[in-house]
């Protein structure tokens, strides 16, 4: 895997969604439940003004993010995923789910990129992270979490995604969590310089 392969096309995801109710076992595995709990626990702020979750699938993570955000914009490239997410999030008037492969317009104080960026080829990854950084308000939070075990069908492995993210300009790391299966990194949009959670709540 060189990291130079092309992004996986929309048809790849349409086929997966057409073939299975829950293509990645997001709805049915303790592994995913636990990982979502870690993502939520890693958010440095209790509440966010406007959040984005690109690649939301059926909304299993979105439904947990929704109570922490005044507004949440979820996107997915697949019609089936969007239908599922819309139905799951129907009770939340402040959540929108859009069918698109583009990053949603406007500014955000939270962006959650969970199990998505390894589907992008190198040029698309660079563009994607630059767009995310531009969309983040100063001090805003970026959470990235990706599987790091072998996945030969992906253009790049998850570890490399996180190594590349570590040198993207405009981000300062707030937290990192590494396991044999996945990496989770939390960044703040800098400047101003990244603050720890204790600094945010006035403990030091
Ligand atoms: C593995 S799922 C991740 C779901 C969710 N973020 C989570 O971690 O529970 C990846 C999702 O990304 C979607 N996807 C792939 N490429 C995309 C793109 N360029 N823009 C938006 N969604 C995309 C797929 O259709 C799929 O539903």
TrEMBL record:
Keywords: Methyltransferase, S-adenosyl-L-methionine, Transferase. InterPro entries: SAM-dependent_MTases_sf, SAM-MeTfrase_NodS-like. GO terms for biological process: methylation. SUPFAM superfamilies: S-adenosyl-L-methionine-dependent methyltransferases. It is an enzyme of class 2 (transferase). GO terms for molecular function: methyltransferase activity. Its EC number is 2.1.-.-. The keyword Methyltransferase applies. PANTHER family: METHYLTRANSFERASE (PTHR43464), UBIQUINONE BIOSYNTHESIS O-METHYLTRANSFERASE, MITOCHONDRIAL (PTHR43464:SF19). This is Class I SAM-dependent methyltransferase.
């Amino acid at each position: 895997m060189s990291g130079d392969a092309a992004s996986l096309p929309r048809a790849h995801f349409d086929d997966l969604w057409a073939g299975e109710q829950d293509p990645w076992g997001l709805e049915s595995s303790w592994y995913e439940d636990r990982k979502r709990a870690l993502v939520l626990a890693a958010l440095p702020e209790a509440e966010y003004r406007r959040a984005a979750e690109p690649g939301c699938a059926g909304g299993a993570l979105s439904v947990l993010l929704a109570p922490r955000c005044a507004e949440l914009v979820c996107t997915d490239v697949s019609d089936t995923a969007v239908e599922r997410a819309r139905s799951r999030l129907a009770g939340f008037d402040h959540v929108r789910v859009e069918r698109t492969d583009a990053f949603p317009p406007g500014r955000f104080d939270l962006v959650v990129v969970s199990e998505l960026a390894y589907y992008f080829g190198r040029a698309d990854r660079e563009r994607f992270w630059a767009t995310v950084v531009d969309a983040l308000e100063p001090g805003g939070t970026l959470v990235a979490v990706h599987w790091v075990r072998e996945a030969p069908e992906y253009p790049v492995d998850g570890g490399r995604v996180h190594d590349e993210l570590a040198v993207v300009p405009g981000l300062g790391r707030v937290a990192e969590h590494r396991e044999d299966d996945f990496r989770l990194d939390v960044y703040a949009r800098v400047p101003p310089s990244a603050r720890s959670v204790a600094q945010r709540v006035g403990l030091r």
